[in-house]
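Interim report, section 4.2 (structural modelling).
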Amino acid sequence: MASLLEKLKETVGQEIVLKAPDEMGRSSLRQYALAIGDFNPLYSDREFAEANGLRDVMAPPTLICDTWQYVDSDMDDRGDLLGRGPVRELEGLRAGNEYEFFQPIHPDDVITAHWTVKDVYEKTGRTGSIIFQVIETTFYNQREELLARNTETMFYRPEASGEGK
Amino acid sequence: MVTEARNFNDIQAGDEITPLVKEIGMARMMAYGAATWDFIRLHYDADYARELGFEAPFVDGQMMGGFLTQHVQDWAGPGAFLRKLAFRNRVMAYPGDTLTCHGLVTDVSSTEEGGMVECDLWMENQRGEKVVDPANALIRFPLKASS
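Predicted structure of the assembly:
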């Protein structure tokens, strides 16, 4: 049976493209802002957004990097969207994120996400071995304009079995 | 206040980013899961989280990105655009935690893209533990803003 490291190494280069079935929508912006408790009018008040040089309200920047809104599927009992495909098999914990934002995202943007595993490596420290996996997701709109890039690092402890997130 | 523009010319290295305090509750964690279409029960179902060996449902690590964005955007004002944000999760956050975002400006430069401000950020819980550390942001300001 392949070790966890071997299994994760096999994910390097794997690429998934997911295209949203519809626009971001205004209410999804407000819902994310509510969840954060961030009532910046840039996200909800069109006149205020226009007065600040935007063509419409903008999404809270990190929304695009964390939402699975563009997956069009049912979910399983764990709450995992089936349409995430091979991404569902990854059970690491989050080590950190690097976001890059190229332009504001608006309610009429239709998102396509390009998800790919960039690297898998092992480090041995005081607490034993940890495997890191670097995943890059790049987001475009319907005009193929680059919107944002999310590089996230997940980690796994080979001795621990079971699930995680 | 969130809606006031900050003048790029007034910003200097060493300036403090106004701290932001966030109270973590299960309702907000559930709302975050719903808002991001991430319905994983680990973030709101206490029995399920314990079955998997966690002491309680824990905050989705990416939610920290939302808090840090609010932290810097509130300070920078609505004319500024967040270009980059990076952070490391160190300690898990749980319902009942009080998280405080801190930050300092580390570099200010005028470029073709605009007025660029870099800052170091970190987040502490009520026990003084670093929940997020290190973190940093790059913010773009309009260069002409002088009002």
